[in-house]
């Protein structure tokens, strides 16, 4: 900035379109600046020209606007692309061309000397009905455009520029014959991000268009970019507007113009920003003195250090603090990952910290972060696992690019990005990591921290946590598994059979006397009164899976709500308090995992399932070390909720609970009935309205928790008494109470 200031305050720069000495001097400076830009991309002036624009966006827009589209053209672009590239599709579609997004998949491992192990998969072709165009154009030349960033500004993934060569020379091989029957392919690289640490080498790769932005290289000047264009590609562009600067001659009152010959002159409307252009040599001076290869190595090693350190951070309970986006298998190959680290942070219980929260806290520590989708919706959706439905419903829910919403339906809808440049230091990276550690990592479990009380009013459906909850007369948690869903054929529906049941969430407000139920498949929240006399008339005596129950049933409206929620007909029933408890089905559920027909009654057994935080952490550590490292970075991180416990305890050692027989919590006594046998139900991930199945964590549990063919995790408890005496009325359990095994 000092050099720029000195330059502009001591020299006179005239408008380069005039003939004065100062104008001639400006003209020379602009010409030299063009050469510096070409040199930076190693582009020969015989083959390439540098057109100055107002930014990378304007450079991209120029290509879109002037590209020779026809209805036989294709505009193809990678999913990872900036909105400013995606916008080119409006020009393409508007002229009847097809637009197609693609995914580039590197096939690993990459073998030395092998030609190009990349695979391209195509998304659905987009096309618009355009009226007024000739149906079959005369067989003129057909031109197609392929666009990708040299470095993805979301993930930092660097694209192999060999792609440009392959697309141009051998497109049918990689795109499939059907797409590229016709025409010639031109390649556009958005180097706005990538060129700051690794400019494209145009002597090696025959790219037609490269978009650049100078503030991305050295901060100042803003509002100046460039389109580096191959001469033969520039000749194909069709310019329609003319202006001062681009016209050689024109007549005011008739349709006559003669455009200028030079490529730069033809595309630079009006007067170029010559004071900004005069300033870029001061920026290039710094880059060239450091050398691009040193900048690249420096920034890549800072990013690598940051990625590795973040990835290794663990909460006191062993769960991951940070989920990184990008290709970590490529982490060691510095030429494939740039200087970006993109991530989100998680709490010890596996829920997400919103990225806005991270950004706000960081700014309190003097650290400025970029968060959100970084104008790269394709990469954002890809790495965050957001479907078209998610994206559309988030938009309908009122989310726009710049707002404060960062988590919708439990899923982050953007990320946090750290991006290093030549001026970044190791201390910067270190300071950032220290900030993450001190603000988001919870070091040790406090006894109270992990403790939880959980109630599941409807068997197999989602439950809720409470800080205090009463016991019922029979000694279970009040209203726990008091309701069931029954199929038309008379079975009690379970999570194992109907995983969608897990997506139903429920909550009881004792003061309102209401059970609230929600489902991602139902717009309205359902309310069910707890007070019983309401249903007295509906009491029935029914047989379910060989057991007799006294139940209350519900009206059609309630039943159709649940039928919609689980996408199959069913009815809701409520246990009436005599015969066998539905509560017992918790044990039966587990038994029936092995044998669905053995409807065994476990009267008064297994009222509570107890799981320890430490055992869950131990399991998570094993999942991370035994299975590939990936497991720790993805959704597989196991949360205590997976095991549908009623009581979550913490503060002991892993699997201490296996050895407990009698347990006191406050003044209440419980007896252990032994380990809880696990089935595939714990392999269901229920997240943001979706059910996913995997083989974990059961496969890992099976490797070290197998006892006589049963896979045990957590223990079942039965309530015994209060202080050895008979319990009277409701009595309560509280989060934070100490658990004393005898
Ligand atoms: C910043 C950026 C752009 C937009 O550049 P402007 O000069 O700000 O218009 C386009 N693509 C990528 C990859 C970017 O990082």
From TrEMBL:
A molecular-function term among this protein's GO annotations: lyase activity
Co-factor requirement: pyridoxal 5'-phosphate
Pfam families the record matches: Aminotran_5 (PF00266), MOSC (PF03473), MOSC_N (PF03476)
Residues modified as N6-(pyridoxal phosphate)lysine: 216
Enzyme class label: transferase
UniProt cross-references to InterPro entries, sorted A to Z: Aminotrans_V_dom, MoCF_Sase_C, MoCo_sulfurase, MOCOS_middle, PyrdxlP-dep_Trfase, PyrdxlP-dep_Trfase_major
Signal peptide range in chain numbering: none
Record-listed E.C. numbers: 2.8.1.9
Catalytic activity: Mo-molybdopterin + L-cysteine + AH2 = thio-Mo-molybdopterin + L-alanine + A + H2O
Superkingdom, natural source: Eukaryota
Role: Sulfurates the molybdenum cofactor. Sulfation of molybdenum is essential for xanthine dehydrogenase (XDH) and aldehyde oxidase (ADO) enzymes in which molybdenum cofactor is liganded by 1 oxygen and 1 sulfur atom in active form.
Protein name per the record: Molybdenum cofactor sulfurase
Organism: Medicago truncatula
